[in-house]
Every structure is written in structure tokens, then in C-alpha cells.
Amino acid sequence: MDGWKTNLAILVSKERQYLQQYSNYKSKLNRVGYTPEISHGMLVEMAEHKKDLEKKTKPILDTLRSYQDLPPDKALAALAIEDKKRQYNAAEKELEDILQSALATSED
Length: 108
Fold this sequence. Notes:
The chain is mainly α and 108 residues long. It has helices at 2-32, 40-66, 74-107.
């Protein structure tokens, strides 16, 4: 009988401990947004759907990344083009001046 009493006290203590742990785990799941509708099968299905979406969106993302080099505004793009034209004209003028001075020194 004493053995049963001791075992019963231990079982009662373990029951309280397990109920407390169960309560803690349940509150933790509620905090992270777990609902009973979420199951392994549902998670696998969602992962497959995610992979399908990634396959569909990857070409679009690659195309959009190629547009990142463009200025964000049409006016800024026009200014960039004008700046490059000015730089080109200045380089062309400098080359022409160098050629003229080389021709002038070779004629002398």
C-alpha cells in the first residue's frame, strides 16, 4: 500500500507538470498563430504552390532587374543623354584641335 501511495504522489506530481507543459506549449502555439487547420499536408501543398509561383515570377523579376540601370524619370534620362552628347562633342572638339595643331606643326 505504501508503494502505491508513493507512486500515486509521483503520478499526481507528473500530471501537474505535464498539464503545465501542455498549457505552455498551447499558449506558445497561439502566440505564433498556429491553428488546428494547419497540418503537414497543408504545409507541403503551400510549399509546392510557392515553388510554382517562384517559377512563374523569376522571368519577370529578371526582366525588371534589367530596368534598374535606367534613370527613374524621363527628364533625368534626357539630361543623362544630353550630358553624354556634350562630353562626346567636347572630346571630338579636343581631337579636332589636336589634329589641327599637329597639321600646323608638320606644315612648318
